[in-house]
Amino acid sequence: MMDLELTPRQDALRQQLKELVTRHCPPAVARELDERGRFPHEFFAQLESAGLCGLLVPAEHGGAGAGLPELAIACEELAHASAAIAVAYGTSALSGGWAPARFGTAGQPRALAAGGRYFALAAPDEHGGTTAAAQCGENRYRLRATQLQVPGADAADQLLVVARSDAGERGGEGLSLFYVPRVSAGVRVTAVAQMGGRAVSLCEVDLDDVVVTPESLLGPLHRGGPILDQLMDAYRLVVAAASVGLAQETFESALAHARQPRNSGPPPAARQAVQHALAALHTRIEAARLLVYHAAWCAESGSDASAQVGLAKGYATAAANQAVEVGMRIAGPAANRLDCDMQRYFRDARPLETLAGSPEADKDRVAGSLGL
Q: Which of 14, 31, 93, 342 is deepest in the core (most CB within 10 A)?
């Protein structure tokens, strides 16, 4: 028998996050964070107090011991407040909890989880390219990089940096992953202006002879390619889950607009065209959610989930963008007002398509699984 219901633990997690969002990051707060381009430190403090910043940290190291399906649920729910916050939370949970638990040394998970730290990921581009290079010395590594694109780097306690440590290798070979404290000498972080997701700044990070110790290395030296592949699949899963949450929030807002009378006339929902548009959107969001949950289950089971994650991310980000297009049309002129959240949803949805890889790269992963 196939069980498509959430477990009691998963349902409790969803309800807990729903209550935290309602209480501590309602639309007015999310709108202010977006307008000011301010990182949600207070909200992350609430997540930490609730024990949710250690969601993926093993129980024996003081965390919740949850897995990728629970992370997907969490990111989906957080995206009802802000997709940018959801992605930042998921990225931190992966970089500071999931990755060291799966690939790190025995002491890394507990050491990195201490103090409710926030982690940002300096990931390479979709082709595996990175400007970061690591020079290996005796009991230390020296990192150099220019213009790494790192969301949330200005608020991070630690950066997880992917660097080429063996210049003779190409692609995924010769890569190593390092934890770098943001306050390290030689780290320069510059926030840049961006259209959407403004609660979490897009930053350029430069590393000028930043020295880190062997304890900062995640996984084996020069053999970080397979680790990076799994980490990026999990990162794409976070983006997909956040896209579903944003799509659902946009759908609910569009539904509310559709039910409001216009100029003393009937509401837009009285028209069949609007009804069908909302029905089609609801169907697409439900399908996207199932794809995300299935991809999370595949990734958690340890199988190669790259194709499933690519399918889920491509479909979910498209669903989010379809949702904002439908929502903008139904909301009408009100959607262009800055005090209307629909315009924020529109701006937040666009960057999700290219975060952690373009739609074409997502299709390439699916096509590869078909032997094409």
A: 93
